[in-house]
Amino acid sequence: MGIDFDGDIQKDSYNLLIHYGQEEVAKHSLKVANEAKKIAKKFGINQESAFIAGCLHDISKVYSDSEKIEVAKVLGIKVLNEEEEVPSLLHQKLSKIMAVEIFRITDEDILSAIECHTTLRNEVKEMDMILFVADKLQWDLNHSEGFRKNVIKGLDISLGQAAFEYVNYMLKNKDNMKVVHPWMLDAYNYLKDRCKCFRL
What we know:
Elements: H1 9-19, H2 23-42, H3 47-56, H4 65-74, H5 81-85, H6 91-101, H7 108-115, H8 126-137, H9 141-144, H10 148-155, H11 159-172, H12 182-192
């Protein structure tokens, strides 16, 4: 990819994004990594794994949206209709593949979290929810004002509650979404029975 790696995942992932002109994504990814590490510490979950997942979660944004579809098909990734319509949704699946092929990640918790960090999915794991929530909390305030307060409050209850607060907010406002990814619906149905509150 035209860049030398030295084995430091934080440095290598950051430099790769910078190399492809994705400075804002690089900065966001580092913020998410630190947020994920903080959340992992709160819940007694592997902080290093959470940090690595944060560093790599958006790594496939080196590809344009049109390239994402092409690369996904070459790699044999099933592209859902919603992903065809909104190709940016594919970046979670592609980032997982890049984490394996470029950064040699084998930890299934890290890979699972990267693969569903935008939408979540059914039967989510703890690391999935850590990265999902960390990502949303590190969006700028203009994009997170509607859900931020409830997600933070949710963290005082459980990871599942925090994740549910975001999913619930998005589905309650689904008319503002270009598509509703089926994985997010699966996550909603999985989490709603496991959370203290239900407001959709």
